[in-house]
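Hi support team,

I've been running sequence recovery on a batch of backbones for a student project. Most finish fine, but this one hangs at about 90% for roughly twenty minutes before it completes. I'm not sure whether the input is malformed or the queue is just slow. I've pasted the structure tokens below so you can try to reproduce it. Let me know if you need the job ID as well.

Thanks,
M.K.
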């Protein structure tokens, strides 16, 4: 469900109650960040509602995570940019809210960039300026009644600790309906900023600007069945040094791969999908990751997770690296957890070359809550192989050639009769990655009791080529 859908629900609940929605009363039974349903290595706000990741930008050793936030309530509303910082994409510290609603509207989704060349002229000191580009959602608050949705900017001269709204806002006037969610990237060849924007229905648009203040429309494009939160970025093609392709994603993560010359994006092939989970939405990638690192790192809102009686609502996905591979069918995005997950690895359990008969469970003795599991199975005569965590089966069905978890399912071809899995198990989520990220399943759950791991085969004997279960520490020290 999209955040706007949530907002409609919240509004009708408020109307039914005969007034503005009140924050729910909640009891915090345990210290903050250790409550019953608090994710232990996925970002949540200390309290209240969050949705889309916004303004993902890296500057001077700090990963900024801004996010759609209701500072006043457990449900969607009062959209404000919350802010968290991390040195490693694993340990987060929440800071004061970054951008607050004003007379132009509440603050909807958008992006952030480092203006290395001071193109906007906002730099006042030694620090390079971080510029946030967001939607002012006119008409979503009493202060902004009668105003439309426009695109605005705000800048920070103190490494993202405070933002000043540009006094010439909006920088992009209303175009159509609830046009929103600007994602901006620097295009080095033309020395222009490029903005991807959601217009309406399944239509998106690209704009360019020399200075983040004046924008020229380049062209529109349609992503069938998609809406909201576009992202647009180059990816190196694996195994083809120097070859870049451009990827255009929508909120649901579906994407086109194509070419971009600074004026026009030309998609090749059909719309593709990498994640098939229940809770993967409003995806956005980091801006300004140093070239020496070179990764394209994506975070999704795990939309629709349930956290009964908790002081917070909703969680982000674990950050993932995106890679591009040419397959016989065309270019495909692969998605795997960033290697920084290793910072949380605690005790490791390993198996190698084990015959797995129906009824066997080599993982029987491993009973913890948080895991990074990596497994390679040779299917042999088995019709199904898999792992159970939180009582939920992550199953590869050899018959259907599908990977299944929590009522979601992804197509996955075995490679030489084998499948490889990586599985991140947190308190309220399971993220599964098949064959090095060819597909993923990002899903939330409400755990029903202690985690007992299981590794199983059904219908015949399989072989565990290798199985490594890393117990994880909590990121909340
Ligand atoms: C996506 C979305 C965006 C919008 C934001 C509002 O979930 O609907 O289109 O900017 O959420 O919170």
């Amino acid at each position: 469900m999209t955040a706007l859908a949530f907002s409609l629900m919240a509004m009708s609940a408020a109307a039914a109650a005969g007034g503005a929605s009140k924050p729910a009363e909640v009891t915090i039974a345990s210290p903050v960040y250790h409550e019953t349903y608090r994710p232990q290595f996925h970002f949540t706000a200390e309290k209240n509602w969050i949705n889309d990741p916004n303004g993902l930008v890296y500057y001077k050793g700090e990963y900024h995570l801004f996010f759609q936030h209701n500072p006043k309530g457990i449900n969607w509303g009062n959209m404000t940019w919350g802010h968290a910082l991390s040195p490693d994409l694993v340990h987060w510290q929440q800071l004061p809210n970054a951008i607050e609603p004003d007379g132009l509207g509440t603050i909807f989704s958008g992006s952030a960039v480092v203006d290395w060349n001071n193109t906007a002229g906002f730099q006042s000191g030694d620090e390079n300026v971080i510029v946030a580009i967001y939607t002012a959602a006119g008409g979503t608050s009493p202060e902004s009644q009668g105003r439309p949705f426009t695109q605005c900017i705000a800048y920070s001269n103190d490494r993202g600790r405070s933002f000043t709204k540009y006094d010439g806002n909006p920088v992009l006037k209303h175009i159509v309906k609830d046009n929103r969610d600007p994602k901006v990237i620097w295009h080095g060849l033309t020395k222009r900023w490029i903005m991807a924007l959601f217009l309406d229905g399944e239509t998106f648009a690209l704009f360019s600007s020399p200075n983040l203040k004046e924008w020229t429309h380049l062209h529109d494009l349609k992503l069938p069945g998609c809406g909201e939160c576009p992202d647009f970025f180059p990816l190196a093609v694996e195994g083809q040094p120097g070859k870049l392709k451009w990827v255009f994603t929508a909120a649901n993560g579906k994407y086109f791969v194509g070419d971009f010359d600074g004026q026009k994006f030309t998609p090749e092939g059909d719309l593709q999908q990498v994640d098939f989970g229940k809770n993967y939405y409003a995806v956005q990638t980091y801006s300004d990751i140093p070239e020496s690192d070179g990764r394209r790192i994506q975070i999704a809102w795990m939309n629709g997770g349930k956290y009964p009686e908790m002081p917070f609502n909703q969680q982000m996905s674990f950050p993932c690296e995106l890679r591009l591979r040419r397959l016989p069918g065309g270019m495909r995005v692969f998605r795997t957890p960033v290697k920084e997950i290793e910072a949380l690895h605690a005790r490791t359990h390993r198996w190698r070359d084990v015959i797995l008969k129906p009824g066997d469970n080599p993982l029987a003795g491993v009973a913890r809550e948080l895991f990074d599991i990596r497994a390679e199975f040779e299917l042999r005569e088995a019709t199904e192989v898999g792992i159970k965590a939180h009582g939920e089966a992550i199953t590869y069905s050899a018959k259907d050639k599908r990977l299944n978890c929590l009522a979601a399912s992804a197509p996955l071809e075995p490679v030489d009769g084998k499948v490889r899995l990586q599985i991140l198990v947190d308190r309220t989520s399971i993220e599964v990655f098949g064959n090095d990220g060819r597909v993923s399943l990002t899903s939330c759950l409400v755990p029903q009791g202690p985690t007992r791991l299981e590794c199983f085969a059904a219908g015949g004997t399989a072989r565990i080529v290798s199985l490594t279960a890393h117990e994880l520490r909590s990121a909340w020290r």
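--
Follow-up from support: It reproduced on our side and the slowdown came from queue contention, not your input. Residues 2-4, 51-52, 68, 79, 108-109, 135, 180-181, 228-229, 251, 282 surround beta-D-fructofuranose (CB under 6 Å). No action needed from you.
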